[in-house]
Amino acid sequence: MYNTVKQKLANGEQVIGGTIDTPDPDIYRAMARAGFDFIWIEMQHSPLTYQEVARMIWAGRDLPAIPFIRVPDATEGDVQKATDIGALGVIVPMVVEPEKVEAAVRFAKYPPVGARSLGGGQYGELWGSNYRQTANDNVMVVGMIESPAGVENVERIAAVSGVDVIFTAATDLFSFSGFAQGSPEYEAMVTRIKDATLGAGLGLGGPVQWRNREGFNFFQAPTATVLVGRGARDLLNETEILAPIEGSER
Predict the structure, then answer these.
(1) What average pLDDT is seen over the chain?
(2) The pLDDT value given to residue 235
(3) What is the signed CA dihedral for 155, 214, 103, 170, rounded to 10 degrees?
């Protein structure tokens, strides 16, 4: 088991992923050594290419954060490329029907579990020469519920063999439903997702602000650009009077 995120979840721990939506390998490395359990590489809502993401993952190959990719869709091409370049997590957006996560599992897993093509890629250099024998136990599939229609099918989605985490997309659930966080209608949807997910023995995801919600254990933190702004504000409020040794900030 080299997917430490999967191992931590199995141990009952919470995991947090920092989000990357820019192609700079140095930014990726800074995030990957900041203490996050995984990196949420954002390819649904960014112009990132698989070639750029491959370089980012390779740049962080010696760092502990595990690469996860939110793919644009659960197509064979998207999932195959994500796994070939070394992602150990495939995050599937906009899940309404169970068939969508079924497709992601099928294309993320080698036979006999799935129908992933052997192909090539940098996965072997990242995860070892026995990757073909170990990948099915290490590659995770995360399904995102973002709409009331997805909530209506969450029990069927959570029952899909091979899915590891069901993620509640907090802001999109508001956007699609019109119900604000904290309202009875909104919280009823979150509770239904939670009950179905935990009932199926899966990980339960949400934004990092939900760390204290009961049952949740898989979280997305803000993007690197947001964190840069927060870090700058913290720096401007510092009272330290001694300058750090150049290069020691890392």
Answers:
(1) 95
(2) 83
(3) 100
